[in-house]
Amino acid sequence: MSEKHGLEQLNRIPVAEAVVRNAIPAMIAMLMVLVYNLADTFFIGQTNDDLQVAAVSLATPVFLIFMSVGTVFGVGGTSVIARAMGEGRKEYAGKVCAFCMWGCIGIGLLLTVIFLCFMEQILSFIGASGDTWELTRTYLVIVTYSGPFVLIAGCFSNILRAEGEAVKAMTGQLLGNILNIILDPILILGLGWDVAGAAIATVIGNLVAAGYYLLYFASGKSSLSIHIRDAAVKGSICSDVLSIGIPASLGSLLMSLSQIIMNSQMAQYGDVALAGIGVAMKVTMLTGMLCMGLGQGVQPLLGYCIGAKNWLRYKKIMRFSMCLSFALGVVATGVCYLLLEPIVKAFLTDANALEYGMQFSKILLTTGALFGIFYMLLNALQAMGAAKASLIINLSRQGLIYIPMLFIMDAAIGMTGLVWAQPVADALSLLLAVVLYRLTYDSMMHEKKGKLRLLTA
To answer: Which entry of 28, 169, 347, 445 is 20 to 30 Å from 39 by CA?
Structure first.
């Protein structure tokens, strides 16, 4: 594929069109990730066994660790590749892509072995009880075997957008997610495999998504490479990818860890409350995933502008995307509020669990309108290559702010305090993101002016 048909061409068309063309597929892909996550919980809920719903809620954040590690290579690789494309360093971009590919395979296999060897300790840590222990164990053991494929699917759903192939990035995710949704009712209800059926459907979906991306590269249509001969670790490739990828991944890892802590704390109030918070988190993911997809779609455009030193277009993209992201956050949150009761009822049958799900969802949606702005600022920092600022934000939102808030507000208010900890962390993290973005942007502009003075001296 010629570069002019990819990211370069997107940066020659009007800003609004470029943002829409690259962001819409990313948003659809993220929405489908949510749909397939909801599908597991929905069809498990049709068994009328809230213990199985609770088991999936316990297992989900652990499984998300694999996806988080894929983020290291996906987000880090996208940032580096987009800037390299803007600078005209096509060969370097190809080597970065190959490094990400084989990094996913190696780390994925390592994580699979670790998870299987320490499964009992993991179950104890996440708060699995006597009633949910075996159900949670069954789900986790099965999905763990798909580790390397989860990393590959998560990585290349990002990297393909770095070369302007947003539709292909979306297609891989859609194929895997749709297959998972189709298989869920067959395996869970039709064959009566319950949580094992949900896990098997997830594994097959990730295999298909990863397979699609591998076939795309094997076809020779990509300007990038996944060949092992190009997977160089020496030089700056590893550090360039990891300096951006690790902070981004830490955000996802801390999200998983914080959910595990939340589940462990919520378990003291009973399995019914645990089922309620599990569903509430999935409800609020609608706003979060859409806004995250918009940010991910815009990031390569910003990265290319930075690499090409096209600051005027950067400002235009940022201005348009900020307005769009805020509007998206408001609309998505409003839709969640309007459809809240039928959504929660689709997953929970127990009256108490339903009440908890409704109550917890309303609390978590309090800051939903702010998600778009937060993710846009975070992705802009990643596009700049601002590793330290990205690290601080990711450590803070789900870690340094949220985790202490869980314990503080649980002690102060009790069960609802656990839920309110997330909106508090969201608001404080947004303020932090605004400050760090402003400082980083001002520093970047100051450096640009300094170089200009040197050239004209």
So the answer is: 169
